[in-house]
Amino acid sequence: xxxxxxxxxxxxxxxxxxxxxxxxxxxxxxxxxxxxxxxxxxxxxxxxxxxxxxxxxxxxxxxxxxxxxxxxxxxxxxxxxxxxxxxxxxxxxxxxxxxxxxxxxxxxxxxxxxxxx
Length: 117
Description:
By secondary structure, this protein is mainly alpha-helical. The protein has 6 helices and 2 strands; from the N terminus they run αααβαααβ. The relative contact order is 0.12.
C-alpha cells in the first residue's frame, strides 16, 4: 500500500499541477470542484489499470493482480465499485483477518479477488 501511495501521489501531483494551470483551487467555490477532480483522477488511474491487465504499477512490482471472482478481467463498473468500497480500508483489513479466503471486504462486496501472479 505504501508503494501504491507513492505512485498515486505522483499522479495526483501532476493532476493538481495541470488543474492549477487552468484554475486556482483557492478561489471560493473551486475547492469542491478541485476535490472532485482529484477523486476522478484517482478513479481513472485505478480503473484504467484494473481493467487493462488487472495491475497498477505497484501491483506489478509486487506481482499482484485483481480479477473478477470467476477469473476474468474487471469491467469499468466493477472497477469503480471496488474503488469506492476500498475507501473502507481500515474495516476491510480487519475483515480480511476473519474472512475464510483472506479477502478484503471491498473485494468480497465487489466480487473481485486479489491474486498472486
